[in-house]
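$ fold --in a.seq
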Amino acid sequence: MKKPLIGALFAVLFLGAGIAPATAATGADASEAKVKAVDFAGTVALSNCSGSVVRAPTSQPGDPALVLSNGHCLESGFPGPGEVVLDRASTRSFTLLNAAGTGVGTLRADRVAYGTMTDTDVSLYRLTSTYAQIESGYGIEALELDAGRPAQGTAITVASGYWKRTYSCAVDGFAYRLKEGAWTWKDSVRYTSACRTIGGTSGSPVIDDATGKVVAVNNTGNEDGQRCTDNNPCEVDENGAVTVREGINYAQQTYGIVPCIGSGNRIDLDRAGCALPKP
């Protein structure tokens, strides 16, 4: 997992923190790039991770807003294999960022709507604010979860609210199983090498550059070339063959969350199409 601060501070001091510089463009290319540029609006900073305010395609303005992050970013610690957190009280706070990456306010949760590290690595917090209240108070809209699976080659941006830094690359492919220590995740997104995410980027939304929708949540990477150990995930194919890709980072797809979000933004694991693990 991309732990929040272990090794991250050194990496940022060495590589440079802040917003990654945009690639220069001219003429029609510049206009197109401006339309599709991903910024920080709707992302949040947690005490130890990154996240984003998200909505399902069917979410309503008056629904309590949801914050997406990783299961390993839960304040209660890493859920064990097979463990699912559902509708648990929380008082977690989040710093809401605007497009420039400036903190504009504090959002608060009243529940962990869902959290797990089994099959995926995801947490969803329910806020005390509605989408309409966030938009009217801060002028910021939630990011929409894409209901479709991303394709190989999709241009993506990982937007970290913790570091106020973006990483741009593409979907290189998918790991049938991604194994890291005691945990195993299914159908994980593998980035091309340009997305060199670091600790603290855990929970960052992975945004499709063309649509602006969230297609995955950033969660881990192989740091040292080790095989299937903590901070060194390995890929396992359908036949059990193991591949280690040192320096490559990964995310968990989020389209599977959409069918589980019911009326009032309640997580309903019995809804048609919902395949998230149950307690």
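$ fold --in b.seq
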Amino acid sequence: MRSILEIVHQKALDLWTKEGILDETITVTAAPLSVKEAIGTPEGTDFPIQKGKEKLMEANFRDARGQAFTDNYGNYAGTLREIAALPLENNYHRAVFISTMNAVCRSLGMTRNTVHCRDTGPAECARGVFQYIDDYYGKGRVTIIGFQPTLAQAVSSGTEVRLVDLDPDNIGQTKRGVLIEGGEATNDAIDWADLLLVTGTTLANSSIDLFLTGKPVLFYGTTIAGAASLMGWNRYCPQSS
């Protein structure tokens, strides 16, 4: 059975082929952004990117930008055909492909909000998340996958929450009022929840298959922008540009 990433990759390749852009001479580049370039100066200092655990890769295609969070970053330049041929076996290649896909989907008018919000954006995003969940999914227990500080605080203020994260510095700690559990709690936390609020970074680290179990899923963040459009997934990312 194909993985979710393989299905997304095929959809992107089919799109690029249909649009006749695989062999264009336009290049796509991706480069790691500094903390200030990526998110400015948000309220709080506990975002993963501020701790140096992850960086944003940014692809530029024509006049559009697309991003992806990753813990394995660097520079890349190549045609869409070359990028489509990259083996998606490590976080670096996956981040190159995903940021490229986001930029191309943005350029083709298929998706918006592909550039991470800055400064007060994360706090503004969090202020609306619980109402969004209530409007679209109703009241219920939420398991959050990935520690995004302001979202964790906002959702836990309105309902029961469990939070799973893979950063060993976070596991076992209570942050923003939520106890952070490790990966070993994933299956139990999924079974417990009525809704999964899942970081788009799960696509870049190839763990996304764990969370598409048939339960309602709301993805958040810019990393999954293009894939959400191609796959018809619901995504919450109102403050990104």
